[in-house]
Amino acid sequence: MYAKPDSTTMKSRVARAGDAMDAALKSLSYRSVEAEEGRVLPMMRNDNAPRAEAQAPEIAPEIAPEPASATRVPEGLALGRPSREEAEAAVRTLLRWAGDDPNREGLRDTPARVVKAYGQLFGGYDTDAEELLERVFEEVEGYSDIVLVRDIPFYSHCEHHMVPFMGLAHIAYYPTKGVVGLSKLARVVDTFARRLQTQETMTAQIADVIESILKPRGVAVLVEAEHLCMAMRGVQKAGVSTITSQFRGAFKNDPNEQVRFLTLVRGGKG
Ligand SMILES: [Zn+2]
């Protein structure tokens, strides 16, 4: 099992644009990946291999873009959840399917542990991201410049193989009627990450809910992640990141705003 994201170690900050921004723009090497309305195309970034752009198409078939909605309700929930006993029995079945003996000493308590762990790893199904933002809305008069929370760690599971993917989310918005508590943006990320996901859907869901509840002048979301289902199956080398982004409002309409966002995200990272 891996560590859960810990919001107390999150390096979040509110960033305001400064006059020194112009210098930073010159070192920017990011290119926009948003090709058309409502779609985000995956892009590869390999820190160990500069300019490995030719690899990009290989990642695309793995993750099929789908319509994203912040309020998507998993259909299975409408049928009711199985009991804990049923869930544990299912884990025992998978253990036997994998070729092991669920009754041997080391595995005896595993089904119970797995079911308990699922409660946390997939706890996002029990959280309403809209409610999260509504509940903690705070008026901050007079501040309408960019609010950026970056390096929000998350752990999710791909919906294709139920294998973890993890990374960092960066969120920016231009408030129109107030600023939400910064830790709540991290909880929004957690809410969507702790479900079966594609990175593209998660990126869009984060942007959707911020747009619909906070009604900002613009919102930008960048997610960079490593997918273990690719690393473990040997399709890609370890250390390869997939980057997805969503730009709404001012960030969508003005390329300079995208540059500003990306510069702030990359700022201080060398
Ligand atoms: Zn997968």
TrEMBL record:
Family classification: Belongs to the GTP cyclohydrolase I family.
UniProt: Zn(2+) binding residues: C158, H161, C229
Residue ranges constituting the GTP cyclohydrolase I domain according to the UniProt record: 88-265
UniProtKB keywords: GTP-binding, Hydrolase, Metal-binding, Nucleotide-binding, One-carbon metabolism, Zinc
Organism phylogeny: Bacteria, Pseudomonadati, Pseudomonadota, Alphaproteobacteria, Hyphomicrobiales
Protein name (Swiss-Prot/TrEMBL): GTP cyclohydrolase 1
Oligomer status and interactors: Homopolymer.
The protein's annotated pathway: Cofactor biosynthesis; 7,8-dihydroneopterin triphosphate biosynthesis; 7,8-dihydroneopterin triphosphate from GTP: step 1/1
Cellular component GO terms, alphabetical: cytoplasm
GO biological process, one term: tetrahydrofolate biosynthetic process
Matching InterPro entries: GTP-CH-I_C/QueF, GTP-CH-I_N, GTP_CycHdrlase_I, GTP_CycHdrlase_I_CS, GTP_CycHdrlase_I_dom
UniProt-listed HAMAP family: FolE
